[in-house]
Sequence to fold (451 residues):
Amino acid sequence: MPDAVTMDKIVSLSRRRGFVFPSSEIYGGMGSTFDYGHYGVLMKNNIRERWFEAMVRNRDDIVAIDSAIILHPKVWEASGHVAGFTDPLIDCRTCKLRFRADKLEDSQCGLKPSKHPGETPECDLTEPRRFNLMFETTVGALQEEGSRAYLRPETAQGIFINFKNVLQIARRKPPFGIAQIGKSFRNEITPGNFLFRVREFEQMEMEFFVPPDEAEKWYRYWIDERLNWYRRYGLRDSKLRVREHGPEERSHYSQGTSDIEYEYPIGWGELEGIANRGDFDLTQHAEYSTTKLEYVGQDGERYVPYVIEPAVSIERIMVALLIDAYDEEVVGERERTVLRLHPKMAPVTAAILPLIGKSDDMVAKARSLYEDLRRRHSVEYDDSGAIGRRYRRQDEIGTPWAFTVDEQTLADDTVTVRDRDSLAQERIPIAGVGDWLENALERDWKSPKAN
Ligand code: ATP
Fold:
């Protein structure tokens, strides 16, 4: 059966269930900018948590940092962003739309959406111009020369400028890494496709500093690690691939770049980039800041480390997870929509439901179970409406399990566990629910959707 998912269905479910809202909607909206509702926040927290766990908590060789968003403007001169962080931009004098010259085949003509810009006789395109993607701002009360600053377009530079601090204070020796999660801003010319390309996004980047002769080995290592992370959290193999950039496609700093791509409904697109940045960044910052940025060993050995960087945004992961999880099926002649999310990515881990919302006894038991579980897990209590509707609501937000308190619970203190994917139900003692959940969360998980 073909995948039922489309980007429109994801956008509409995200909105309907309170994952993601178009931003500033009461003012008519702000294109390609989004606000996250309750479930969106919970899911983003999970993505962040799983990344941090894999990159920092479960390792001995990576430490965390949280640098400022507005850095010294010289940072962006040294990094090459002031001069080179540009996209080629083309305007159409007829329809007044603006396009990326290198993405015309992905764009629609403003007059005839079935055509690409430049394909109709009415199209009147300008020559491409370079457009810098950094958002500018001014710092301090006066808008004068010298007060210009930028919102960071990537978190990586905040890591490089702290290299010396970490080397000295955290007493690290290559190979070691510094990881950062935080907002980045890019004035994208053609944002779109929901969260895939937005102007403000949360990046998760890790710079891994290595001896130059080990760079290639670690580059391959991080491609594998990151690919396995996606597999572990349930993205299907058939929808994932690694694409290595040719020399002409690489950024100015890169000695090798591979994209982990996901097959979105709009086609294959970059999910995460893994780059071998060589010694470009440390060398540039050493030159511009006149601070030595190198590793000096006890035996006098000294070198500028090479850097391997896995870089991704929470937004791209969230879209990929939602798309991969989205499913529609007919159960007992009724259609249901279900998000088959990995249990550790789902916003709510379990729902606690009294079968009859008006039964005081069932409500009391269910509430007490809920109060107990909420201390350790993301759980939700719901007693409103028919049980079938409550299950469907949980299916749509991807809750893997529901514990239901019914007539029998009152007699023998057991509850039913309903599995979101198989719809199987089993009875377990109410006192064992916490442990059951703990174990279920640790089990290996594979998407029940066909590969
Ligand atoms: P693209 O070619 O899609 O513009 P890029 O190669 O410029 O992306 P990088 O600079 O490598 O992207 O950024 C690293 C990661 O940050 C990307 O793999 C993606 O996950 C994320 N990212 C970059 N730009 C955006 C954006 N506008 N919206 C959401 N996520 C983004």
